[in-house]
Write a structure and sequence with these properties.
Layout lengths: L2 H9 L6 H14 L4 E5 L4 E6 L7 E6 L17 H30 L1 H21 L7 H17 L2 H4 L2 E6 L7 H9 L1 H4 L3 E5 L7 E6 L1 H14 L7 E6 L15 E10 L3 E3 L13 H17 L1
Parallel strand pairs: 3-4, 3-5, 5-8, 6-7
Antiparallel strand pairs: 1-2, 2-4, 6-8, 8-9
C-alpha cells in the first residue's frame, strides 16, 4: 500500500461525527483536488465523487462512514440465510424485552399512552445502540478496507485510465444505506445501465465473494471473472442475488455488485464476524492489492 493508505490506517479510522467526516474530506481533497462533495438527502449525506459519472463505464464505490461500537459483532452469513435470521433475532431479544417491559410497566402507570411511550423508548434504545452510540474506533475491515481499495486504485491509474471510471465514497451506509440511496436518486438516469462495483469489508478473509444483481451478472459476469482471476491462497465465489445476499450499498443500483472478503467454516459456510467491535483490526494488505488491481483491469477492459 502507498503512503496515503498507511496514513488513513494510522490517523483516520474514525469517521462518524460531522466534524470527523469533514476533516477526512479535507484530507482527501488535499490528495485529490478534483474530488467533489455531493450533499443532500435524508440525514444530509456527503458523498465524495471523483470522476465523471455521466461518461464513466464503471463506478467503484465504498462507504467511508464508520459504525457505532456494539457489544456483539455484526455477523453475516451470505449463503446461509437461516443462520443470519436466527442471529439477528437473538441479538434483538434484549431490546424486545426492554421494549415490552417498559410498555407493560408504563401501561399500568399511565394507561394506553404509557404503552405507546414504552414502545417508543424501547425502539429509541435500539436505534441508539445500533446507530447513534459511541463510534467504534476499530474499523480496519468495515469499511476502511473499502476506502483503501478505492485510494489504491486511484493512485495506480493514469489520468487516461481514469476516464473509464468514477469513484464514489458513500456516506451514511451504517445508518441504512442512506448515502447510496441519495446518490442513486440523484443519478438515476446515468446509473440505469451502468455497472457499479462496491467494496465493503475486504481485508479480513481469504474467500472473496462477488454478489451480482441479475442484470450485472448477465452483462458483466464474464468481465468480472476476467478482471478478478484466481489468486494463490484465495477462493473466489461469483454469486447472484438469488444464491447469496450481502447487505450493502450496491443493492440500491440496477447493475450493482457487492464485493467482500469472508472466512469459511464447515456447515456454517462463508461468514463475516468481528465488524462493529474492537476486534475489527485485521488488515490483509494482499487483499487490498488484489482488489485494486482487479478494479484497474476491469476499467481497462470493460
Amino acid at each position: 500500500m502507498d503512503s496515503l493508505s498507511y496514513e488513513i490506517v494510522q490517523n483516520w479510522l474514525v469517521r462518524k461525527t460531522k466534524a470527523q467526516k469533514l476533516a477526512f474530506i479535507e484530507m482527501l481533497r488535499r490528495e485529490f483536488p478534483e474530488l467533489r462533495v455531493e450533499e443532500g438527502g435524508f440525514a444530509h449525506c456527503r458523498n465524495l465523487v471523483l470522476g465523471d459519472v455521466e461518461t464513466a463505464k464503471v463506478l467503484f464505490t465504498a462507504h467511508y462512514d464508520t459504525c457505532a461500537r456494539l457489544p456483539f459483532p455484526n455477523f453475516i452469513t451470505p449463503k446461509n440465510l437461516l443462520v443470519y435470521i436466527a442471529y439477528s433475532l437473538l441479538i434483538s431479544l434484549p431490546f424486545l424485552a426492554l421494549m415490552f417491559g417498559l410498555a407493560i410497566l408504563l401501561l399500568q402507570w399511565i394507561g394506553l399512552g404509557g404503552w405507546m411511550l414504552g414502545m417508543v423508548l424501547g425502539l429509541a434504545a435500539m436505534l441508539y445502540v445500533f446507530m447513534l452510540g459511541p463510534a467504534n474506533t476499530h474499523t480496519v475491515n468495515d469499511n476502511t478496507s473499502g476506502v483503501l481499495t478505492l485510494v489504491e486504485t486511484i493512485r495506480a491509474m493514469s489520468e487516461e485510465e481514469r476516464k473509464n471510471c468514477a469513484f464514489v465514497f458513500f456516506d451514511h451506509e451504517e445508518n441504512g444505506l442512506l448515502g447510496s440511496m441519495f446518490f442513486a436518486s440523484k443519478h438515476k438516469k446515468q446509473m440505469k445501465d451502468k455497472l457499479l462495483v462496491n467494496f465493503d469489508c475486504v481485508s479480513d478473509g481469504d474467500h472473496f465473494l462477488f454478489v451480482q444483481s441479475g442484470k450485472a451478472r448477465k452483462r458483466y459476469g464474464e468481465a468480472l471473472k476476467a478482471a478478478f482471476p484466481e489468486a494463490a491462497g484465495k477462493s473466489l465465489y461469483f454469486e447472484s442475488t438469488l444464491s447469496a445476499f450481502y447487505p450493502s450499498d450496491q443493492t440500491n443500483f440496477p447493475l450493482g455488485v457487492g464485493v467482500a472478503a469472508m472466512r469459511k467454516k464447515p456447515v456454517l459456510g462463508l461468514y463475516m464476524s468481528r465488524i462493529h467491535t474492537e476486534k475489527d483490526t485485521v488488515l490483509q494488505e494482499e487483499n487490498i492489492a488484489y482488489f485494486a488491481e482487479g478494479a484497474r483491469r476491469l476499467a481497462a477492459n470493460i
